[in-house]
């Protein structure tokens, strides 16, 4: 994971005050993950002091960016766009499902749906949508 090998497309997540908490959770769940840089709002700046002005992080080797919006919006995350995770084994899908669904919303509980023997779709506690599939 190096900035020199930037991917052309980067997922950008806009939170409303919980970006750092989300990054910390996400990077703890996936190998090859780390927070690269975080810039916080300072006193008398546009955003709430200490909230994330801009951050870059890797999840499983993929680059993501996020912010805490300093503007209140009438929209948030939607399940129409989700992060799709191809899990290596039953232990991984079970662990990710437990952590990502905690205090979130279960859209499709972990089960056999015919198209996959183990699949789940959840909105996590921050509103980000995740599809978990056992390869």
Automatic annotation (TrEMBL):
BP GO annotations: methylation
Domain PhnB-like: 7-132
Pfam families: 3-dmu-9_3-mt (PF06983)
Record InterPro entries: 3_dmu_93_MTrfase (IPR009725), Glyas_Bleomycin-R_OHBP_Dase (IPR029068), PhnB-like (IPR028973)
Keywords: Methyltransferase, Transferase, Ubiquinone
Gene3D superfamilies, A to Z: 3.30.720.100, 3.30.720.110
Gene Ontology terms, MF aspect: methyltransferase activity
Coiled coil: none
Protein name (database record): Putative 3-demethylubiquinone-9 3-methyltransferase (Glyoxalase superfamily)
């Amino acid at each position: 994971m190096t900035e020199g090998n930037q991917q052309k497309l980067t997922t950008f997540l806009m939170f409303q005050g919980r970006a750092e908490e989300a990054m910390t959770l996400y990077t703890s769940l996936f190998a090859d993950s780390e927070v690269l840089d975080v810039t916080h709002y300072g006193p008398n700046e546009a955003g709430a002091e200490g909230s994330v002005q801009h951050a870059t992080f890797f999840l499983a080797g993929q680059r993501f960016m996020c912010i805490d919006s300093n503007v209140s919006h009438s929209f948030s995350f939607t399940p129409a766009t989700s992060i799709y995770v191809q899990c290596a084994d039953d232990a991984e899908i079970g662990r990710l499902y437990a952590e990502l669904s905690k205090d979130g919303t279960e859209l499709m509980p972990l089960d056999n749906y015919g198209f996959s023997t183990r699949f789940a779709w959840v909105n996590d506690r921050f509103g980000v949508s995740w599809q978990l599939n056992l390869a």
